[in-house]
């Protein structure tokens, strides 16, 4: 086999009532790329019509494994083991997923159309006709991580606080938001105003995924395996994918595809920082006691009070159980000196023990988070808030108390 697969013909754009459609022939296989609108009943109907036509012997769709599971089982997110989520450090990702899901739900309620209806139609029709279904999109978690690492560090907080703040604060979804959803999925539409002006954001969000999905096609639906493949993607990906697919495909696409899944490891500096802080604080205590006992105990007291009070107060914002608040006040000063465990983990564990989520909390989770007060009403989402607020409070307390100690000793 040569380094590349059969040369493709130039893409041909065809008229389509629901969205643009391009067909690229590679060897004996035709790939029909259907650009859909993610909030469109017409797109869903067109997907059903094309699959029912019998022209295709395989269907590829713009979904990853996790999004496919969420679409097939909307309650999957709420059925996860919360304690494992906190232990694995996935609380932030789950909270972001819930926030994006809340945005989807509000769009559905206002427009009368569930975002992703065309993907659900593809799932149902391929299952009914027993056609191979290929998931070609990159995992949403990997995309978020690559976005995070691709933008400059000073833009990260504003980017993701804007993402969560915007999704959580708007009770009404604007007509502009719905229009943007017709070009891309929830993630793309949320970042669209940033991506249009930022190459560092556009690359992992759009262009990398264009290439990634073509590489997945080269792996799962290479020329010669199927006669005619229907590729259902958002209209925003149509042009980029058609350009990649019209070029010679790599004979071994896996290495390049895997390279697009790599997330850069945390900087050694950031890994060492918690331990360095611990050493500096303990050194500060030692210097204080070496000068006089009273000063040493003063520094220890300030550390406990500042760190504990800020962490406990932060959990009050999440309306944590009184026992959770008290436990956080006691635990935060100690966990801040032990990088292997965080105050948020302790706070969430106590909150789960005091207010164990009930079956109805999981059943109503996706609906509750569509409004701001629902995040506090539902025990699952409130536990996530307890974890996040305790973590942020402890971080603030560590820095403030640390500077206070340094100022007392050397100011």
From TrEMBL:
Source species, domain of life: Bacteria
Keyword vocabulary terms for this entry: Membrane, Transmembrane, Transmembrane helix
Region span, Disordered: 1-23
Keyword Membrane: yes
Annotated TM spans: 272-289, 301-320, 326-350, 383-406
Any single Pfam family the record assigns to this protein: TraB_PrgY_gumN
InterPro entries xrefs: TraB/PrgY/GumN_fam, TraB_bac, TraB_PrgY-like
Protein name, UniProt field: TraB/GumN family protein
Source organism of this protein record: Halomonas nitroreducens
């Amino acid at each position: 086999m040569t380094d590349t697969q059969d040369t493709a013909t130039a893409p041909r754009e065809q008229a389509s009532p629901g969205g643009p459609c391009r067909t690229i022939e590679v060897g004996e296989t035709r790939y029909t790329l259907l650009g859909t609108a993610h909030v469109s009943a017409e797109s869903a109907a067109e997907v059903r019509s094309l699959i029912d036509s019998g022209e295709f012997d395989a269907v590829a769709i713009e979904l990853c494994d996790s999004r496919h599971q969420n679409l097939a089982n909307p309650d999957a997110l709420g059925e996860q083991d919360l304690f494992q989520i906190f232990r694995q450090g996935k609380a932030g990702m789950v909270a972001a997923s819930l926030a994006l899901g809340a945005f989807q739900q509000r769009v559905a309620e206002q427009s009368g159309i569930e975002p992703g209806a065309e993907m659900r139609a593809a799932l149902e029709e391929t299952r009914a006709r027993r056609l191979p279904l290929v998931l070609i999109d990159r995992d949403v978690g990997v995309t978020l991580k690559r976005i995070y690492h691709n933008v400059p560090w000073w833009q990260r907080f504003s980017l993701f606080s804007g993402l969560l703040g915007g999704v959580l604060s708007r009770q009404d979804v604007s007509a502009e938001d719905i229009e943007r959803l017709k070009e891309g999925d929830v993630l793309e539409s949320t970042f669209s105003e940033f991506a249009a002006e930022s190459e560092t954001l556009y690359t992992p969000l759009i262009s990398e995924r264009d290439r990634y999905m073509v590489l997945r096609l080269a792996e799962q639906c290479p020329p010669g395996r199927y006669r005619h493949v229907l590729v259902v993607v958002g209209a925003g990906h149509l042009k980029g994918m058609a350009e990649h697919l019209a070029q010679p495909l790599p004979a071994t696409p896996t290495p390049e595809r895997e390279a697009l899944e790599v997330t850069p490891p945390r900087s050694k500096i950031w890994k060492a920082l918690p331990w360095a802080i611990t050493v500096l604080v303990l050194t500060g205590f030692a210097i204080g006691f070496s000068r006089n006992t009273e000063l040493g105990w003063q520094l220890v007291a300030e550390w406990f009070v500042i760190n504990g009070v800020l962490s406990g107060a932060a959990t009050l914002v999440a309306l944590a159980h009184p026992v959770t608040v008290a436990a956080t006040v006691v635990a935060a000063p100690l966990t801040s000196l032990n990088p292997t465990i965080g105050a948020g983990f302790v706070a969430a564990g106590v909150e789960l023990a005091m207010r164990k989520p009930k079956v109805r909390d999981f059943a109503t989770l996706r609906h509750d988070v569509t409004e701001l007060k629902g995040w506090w009403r539902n025990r699952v989402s409130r536990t996530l808030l307890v974890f996040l607020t305790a973590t942020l409070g402890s971080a603030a307390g560590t820095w403030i108390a640390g500077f206070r100690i340094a100022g007392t000793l050397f100011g």
